[in-house]
Amino acid sequence: MDNVSQLDLSRIPQELEFLIELLKWEPEEAFPEGLTDRYSELDWELFMQLTLHHRVYPVLTPKLKRLGDRVPSHVTNELTHLFRRNTFQMLHLTAEMEQLSQLFTEQHIPLLFLKGPTLAHELYSDISLRTSSDLDFIVPIDELEKAEKILLDRGYEKDDYIQTVLNDWKWRHHHVTYFHPKKKLKAEIHWRLNPGPSKEPDFTALWNRKITSGLTKTPVYTLGREDMFLFLVSHGSRHGWSRLRWLMDIHQLLNQKVNWKRSFSHLEKYDYLRAGGQAVYLSSSVFGSPVPMKGIRKYASLAQQAVFYMENQVNLHTDPLPEEFARYHKNHLFSLMSFKQKLFFIMSFMHPYPEDAQTLPLPAKLHVLYFPLRPFLWVWRKTRSHALPQGD
After folding, report:
1. What is the pLDDT of residues 145-173, one digit of tens each?
2. How high is the pLDDT of residue 376?
3. Are 382 and 392 spatial neighbours (Cβ–Cβ below 8 Å)?
4. Cα–chain-centroid distance for residue 53?
């Protein structure tokens, strides 16, 4: 397979360079000679901040302990505390996941867990080595009501944030969120892997290729390796690989036994080949992962674009996202799309948005009129927004 050239990482902080070197280091190997000397003047507070931002402290903590007094004790102590807290969180999620799986099975609702403890177990063989704040699982779209009832009966509360017109929620969105106020848990029911407009495997195909997790006694199902790669690629690229944890997941999977011919066939079929090439190139250049595909060099520029997120420590969950980052991210996502995806994306703007119904409320039976009215309503909103006094 093709080799990759190194990315230009000259503008990332040395603290992030050191963090990456530690992530690459396998403890059973000798510690890279002179590494700590090379980074003798680290800003340890920034190092801590980056470790938390990239969600890699579970993997990093055991390695830092091996370095002894070469790492300030307050850094090791704080990360050890976070490591233990994450371990308890993952055990808490595992127990809830097993009970939910049993409840859904009793109601004859098939479900596949996408992230959380099953992903940590499949990729790292140890749930304490990956963070997770919630349980994500996917069910057939016609089972959503029954799935929601199970969560509500269990004490979860729905975060009803989705606004919709003409049932666009089915393809514009891909999950709905629920919170359990007493257990302090969050669960997300998916009916798609990703938000639309995009092509992806239907639930039946995912279910037929599922694997049974070896984490629990009660059967818990998750995505097959090839579908897992598709999901991790689509999810990570959608977030600009702005957290190294997502890239570490790719690295772990690239080192496992996967039918790569079938996997890249999936990427091609569902128009994620550019995102997949970017992921493999990034993982290989940053972590030295194996490259299981040909023609990888043509994805070099896409991989380099993702370095922007590392250089600027971009947090896409910041609200509001700084305009510079928002504009860059929007353009970057568009560059990852295939021609067909770009066409669908542009065409999707012609479908009415909930904002159209807010601008001009109409009875439900007349909602079809939003199609011809949409361009005029969009211009009206833009005109009004520019006409408002600054500060309003």
Report:
1. 999 999 999 999 999 878 888 888 888 88
2. 86
3. no
4. 14
Q: d(Cα 176, Cα 160) in Å, to the nearest integer?
A: 8
DSSP classification of residue 388: S
Those residues of the chain that have pLDDT short of 70 are 1-2, 385-392
| Non-local CB neighbours of 284 within 8 Å, separated by 6+ positions | 4, 254, 290, 291, 296
- Per DSSP, what are the bridge partners of residue 159? 177
Give me 175's structure tokens. 């999950």
Dist. CA 386–CA 167, nearest whole Å: 30
CB 172 within 8 A of CB 195: yes
C-alpha–C-alpha distance, residues 292 and 270, integer Å? 19
Three-point CA angle 13, 14, 19, nearest 5°: 100
Two tokens, residue 219: 């059967």
Residue 12, token pair as written in the block: 């990332």
What region, left, alpha or beta, does residue 166 occupy, with left being phi > 0 and alpha being psi -120 to 50 degrees?
left
Residue 183 per-residue DSSP state = T
Distance CA 132, CA 392 (A): 38
> What radius of gyration, in Å, describes the C-alpha atoms of the chain?
23
* Distance in angstroms (rounded) separating the CA atoms of residues 228 and 215: 17
Q: Which CATH architecture has domain 14-344?
A: 2-Layer Sandwich (3.30)
- Nearest CA to 185 among 233, 137, 237? 137
Task: Give the residue extent of every domain in the chain.
Answer: 14-344, 352-387
Measure the CA dihedral 263/265/270/273, to 10°.
Answer: 80
Query: For tokens 């890249």, what's the residue?
Result: 264
Instruction: Check: CB of residue 233 under 8 Å from CB of residue 275.
Output: yes
By CB neighbour count within 10 A (0-12 exposed, 13-18 middle, 19+ buried), where does 190 fall? buried
Nearest to 100 by CA among 250, 216, 227: 216
State the Cα–Cα distance between residues 94 and 112, nearest whole angstrom.
14
Beta carbons within 8 Å of 194's beta carbon, 6+ residues apart? 174, 200, 234, 235, 238
Output phi, psi for 60, to 5 deg: -75, -35
